[in-house]
């Protein structure tokens, strides 16, 4: 097992970094959603999907 791990160390490290980046993006999106920020970057006034993002309005 240790030999296989050492032979594939680059792949393991790259996969770990990619998993960490995806997790950070998801955490950031969840935090922004809880703060009420839009994920599209534009204002909600003219958005056709406003009712799905902000049903209380």
UniProtKB/TrEMBL annotation:
Protein name according to UniProt: FeoB-associated Cys-rich membrane protein
Top-level lineage group: Bacteria
Entry keywords, A to Z: Membrane, Transmembrane, Transmembrane helix
Species of the source: Fusibacillus kribbianus
Matches recorded under Pfam families: FeoB_associated (PF12669)
Transmembrane parts of this sequence: 6-27
């Amino acid at each position: 097992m240790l030999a296989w791990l050492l032979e594939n160390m680059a792949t393991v490290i790259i996969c770990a970094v990619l998993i960490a980046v995806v997790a950070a993006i998801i955490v950031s999106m969840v935090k922004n959603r809880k703060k009420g920020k839009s994920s599209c970057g534009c204002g909600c006034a003219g958005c056709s999907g406003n009712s799905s993002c902000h049903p209380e309005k």
